[in-house]
Amino acid sequence: MMFADRILSLCQSKNSRLVVGLDPHWDLIPESFKCGFNETQTAALLSGYMNNVIDVTHDHAVAYKPQIAFFEQFGLPGLIALKEVLDHLHHLQCPVIMDAKRNDIGSTAAAYARTFFGDRQLPAAFPSDALTVNGYLGADGIKPFLQKTEHGIFVLVKTSNPSSGDLQDAAFADGTTVADRMADLLETWTADHVGQFGYGNVGAVVGATYPKHMIALRRRMPRCLFLVPGYGAQGGSADAVKAAFDERGLGALINSSRGILFPPDFEAKGFEAVREAAVEAKTDINRILS
């Protein structure tokens, strides 16, 4: 099944648009959990916490988004933890959107694609269903990621960080911005990969912190799935979230990371607090759509 069709089918069957980001901030992992591990057990600590999060939230999330930098920072133990988390997600048949923001020239992009998607010669080192990608190198840096219809990509268009406008809002003579031009390219790239819901395997990263941009970019990219960061801990707008969706309540995936991973009442409730935070996020998104 096409990636876009699979993820949107899950949105309907679970009545959810929630993606749980897996970002193991070391200083936010509760001390009550850390105390069960010694200094040589970093991999087990990281994967143990994240896998507990997955266990209590997978009924409410349509996908998980590991941020690879938060694993890479620990070196080999972090990569071992990432592999253990991916194994657990695949065992539960949960889609994985790897947040790695990779890209380069064509041959190097192909190596990145093999890393996360595999090919006939090599299995994926970190098997994922989708990948965040930097589209700045143009089409020849995108094509290697689109060799299999069961995989998707989300290309950076308008990111949620405060300084995103330094480049993304820069305007050309005709008034279009860099983000607009990137959006037009995505709509072209996804044209050959559109599934039964009307969306393709080339999606866009558009932050919830910029509601006006969200409205304009949705018009420019009617066939692109949106991956929407910035909702929750970053204070993303409910109006921006709503504008990302079509009239069916489809077309966008809303990511929440810290707000779910590290709820303030964890010490009192443990992972039940994590589950409650996921349910609250899912319910809040659905409320916005209704």
Keyword list:
290 residues; alpha/beta; TIM Barrel; eight-stranded parallel β-sheet; 13 helices; 15% strand; globular
Offer a concise description of the structure.
This protein is α/β, with parallel strands linked by helices and 290 residues long. It is built from 13 helices and 8 strands.
Structural features, described:
With 290 residues, the chain is of the alpha/beta class. The protein has a single domain, classed as Aldolase class I (TIM Barrel, Alpha-Beta Barrel). 43% of the residues lie in helices and 15% in strands. The chain is built from 13 helices and eight strands. The protein has helices at 3-14, 31-34, 42-57, 68-72, 76-91, 106-117, 165-168, 178-189, 211-220, 238-243, 258-261, 266-269, 271-289; strands at residues 18-22, 63-66, 97-102, 130-133, 152-158, 200-206, 224-228, 252-256. It has an eight-stranded parallel beta sheet with strand order 2-1-8-7-6-5-4-3. Strand 6, helix 9 and strand 7 (224-228) form a beta-alpha-beta unit. Helix 3 packs parallel to helix 5 (76-91) and helix 3 (42-57) packs across helix 13 (271-289). The longest helix is centred in the last third of the chain and has 19 residues, at 271-289. The two termini are 29 Å apart. The mean pLDDT is 95.
Radius of gyration: 18 Å
Structural class: alpha/beta
The residue fraction in helices comes out at 40-55%
**Largest sheet, spatial ordering of strands:** 2-1-8-7-6-5-4-3
> Please, what is the average pLDDT?
95
Tally of separate helices: 13
Give the beta-strand count.
8
How many strands, what sense, and barrel or not for the largest sheet?
8 strands, parallel
Percent of residues in beta strands? 5-15%
**Highest-level CATH class:** Alpha Beta
What's the CATH architecture name? Alpha-Beta Barrel
Q: What's the helix-strand series?
A: HEHHEHHEHEEHHEHEHEHHH
- Annotated CATH topology: TIM Barrel
- Unreliable spans are none
- How many domain regions? 1
| Shape annotation | globular
CATH superfamily descriptor: Aldolase class I
Distance between the termini: 29 Å
